[in-house]
Hints:
The chain has 2 domains: 4-197, no CATH class; 200-242. It has 8 helices and 2 strands. The chain has helices at 4-22, 31-48, 78-94, 101-126, 133-160, 169-186, 201-215, 223-242, and strands at 130-131, 192-193. The protein has a two-stranded antiparallel ribbon with strand order 1-2. The protein is globular. The relative contact order is 0.11.
Amino acid sequence: MHTFNLGVGGDLSASSIVALCNLGQFRGRGLPSRLDHAYETFACWCRLNKKTVSTKSFEKKKFHMKSNNAYPRGVSKAHDVTLFCKWLGHFLGSVQCPPVKEDADFLEVLRWTMVATNSFFSMLYRGGIWLSVDTAKVVVANGYKAIDGYAALASLSAERGWRMYRVRPKLHMWTHVVKDLDRQVAGGMEHIQNPCSWSCWSDEDYVGRIARLSRRIGSPRLVVTRVITRSLMSYRRHFQRNFSGPPPPDP
């Protein structure tokens, strides 16, 4: 999460949205109005796909841009960055090819990068703790494509005089994640460890479950008692589904 969603992925999605505005893919005479149209398109996609998002608008301030020539950075919500990338992959799949060759080439690299990025993470999230060798090979290939694509976008942006796709240490860290998978595949290991198994998403998912329980409590006076009671019931059901024999004493 901290390497991609709050790092490279945030920069990738924010820079891509601003780049598409610069390329005239959204209506408006200036960047603010084009960002507004971009958000309308994104919000419509979220409604159609029944996705919930925390970000309520696309603004320069949201992307930490003090000026039009500042590096766009991602929003602080990791889940939103995932949605941005999925939406961008969908949007780029239907965008019309612009008449200017340089613009068309930029969009093609962007589409290629976004497809590889979304495929890389979707395969990891669908996999278990251990990945098969065949799955890991595809994941590694997509990971290298995504990293190469990000570097290419940074170079193409620099040629245009755009400050986008900031290259920073978290891009190097993402490369290490992919290389670790590649070493396991090359080493002939029968099962490849999914990097999501040591991701902080797991801890946050557990906390989120308890938080959802507490939000469903009505009376403030019964919060403690009812949350503990529901948690114990959930704990016992989980044990009965996954283990044989009588459940252990309540913790």
